[in-house]
Amino acid sequence: MSVGVLAGKVALVTGAGSGIGRATCRLLARDGAKVIAADRNLKAAQETVQELGSERSAALEVDVSSAQSVQSSVAEALKKFQQAPTIVVNSAGITRDGYLLKMPERDYDDVYGVNLKGTFLVTQAYAKAMIEQKLENGTIVNLSSIVAKMNNVGQANYAASKAGVISFTEVASKEFGKFGIRVNCILPGYIDTPMVAVVPDSVKQQVVQRCPLGRMGQPEEIAEVIAFLASPQSSYVNGAAIEVTGGLK
Ligand code: NAD
C-alpha cells in the first residue's frame, strides 16, 4: 500500500500481540495510521507497541469473547488518541482441534466465543462508536479462514466459526453501508504464525504440497491485503470474502 494513505486515521487491531495481527499493526502504522494494539495478552500487545513506538501506537488489554471487556475497551480506546478508531481489524482467533466424537463442549464454545462471538462483539461496539461520533469512511476487516471452505477433518469447531464469520461479514456490510462503514473479510490459507507452530511437520508438508505456490504464506502477505481493505483505495469493496491462500483450496 502507499505510505501516508492512512494519515489521520486511528486503527484498532485485535489479536495484535502475535502473527497476522502484529504484522497488520506494522503495516497500518507504515501507511500512517495510529494503531491500538489490542490483545488478551497485554504483554504481547505491549511488545508490538514497543516495535512501533508509543507516538503512533498504544496497547490495550481486551478479551474479545467477553461483552463486558469489549465494552470497557471502547472508552479506553477513545482515550488513546482522542478519537474513535475508524479502522477495525478482528484478528483475534484460536483453534481447539479434535475429532467430533471426542470434542469437549468447552472446546466448541471457546472457539465460537473468540472467533465468531468476538467478531460480533467488537464489530458491534466499535461500529456504534463510529456512528455515534458521526465518523465517516469506517472500515472493518474480519479474519475468516480458507478452512471455512476446506472443512478439514478435526476442525469442525474452527471451520464452522470461520464460515460464520463470512456470513456475519456479509450481513454487517449490508446493515452498515448506509453509515459509510465497509465490512469485508479475508480467508487466509496456511500462514506461518504461532497459531500453526503446533501443527506436526508431516501435516505442514501435506498442506504445502497442495498449495500451488508450494509454500506457507507470511503474516505480512495477509496484512498487505488488510491494509488495502483499510484504505480508501478499496472504497468500493464491501461485503467481500477474499481468499489469500497462494491458490490453496
Ligand atoms: P496467533 O495465534 O499468532 O495470534 C492470535 C492472537 O489472538 C494472539 O495474540 C492471542 O493472544 C489473541 N487472542 C486469542 N484469544 C483472544 C481473546 N479472547 N481476546 C483477545 N485476543 C485474543 O494467530 P494468527 O495466525 O495471527 O491468526 C490471526 C487470525 O487469522 C485468527 O483469527 C486466525 O483464525 C486467522 N487465520 C490464521 C491462519 C494461519 O494459518 N495462521 C489461517 C487462516 C486464518
From TrEMBL:
Describe which pathway this protein belongs to, using the record's wording.
Lipid metabolism; fatty acid biosynthesis
Q: Which GO terms describe its biological process?
A: fatty acid biosynthetic process
Kindly give the Gene3D superfamilies that the UniProt entry links to this protein.
NAD(P)-binding Rossmann-like Domain
In alphabetical order, the GO MF annotations are:
oxidoreductase activity, acting on the CH-OH group of donors, NAD or NADP as acceptor; quinone binding
The alphabetical list of record keywords is: Oxidoreductase
Concerning InterPro entries, the annotation shows: KR_dom (IPR057326), NAD(P)-bd_dom_sf (IPR036291), Sc_DH/Rdtase_CS (IPR020904), SDR_fam (IPR002347)
Which domain of life, per UniProt? Eukaryota
> Could you tell me which residue ranges the Ketoreductase domain spans?
9-189
Q: Which family does it belong to?
A: Belongs to the short-chain dehydrogenases/reductases (SDR) family.
Record protein name field: Ketoreductase domain-containing protein
Q: Which organism is it from?
A: Drosophila erecta (Fruit fly)
Gene name, please?
Dere\GG18643
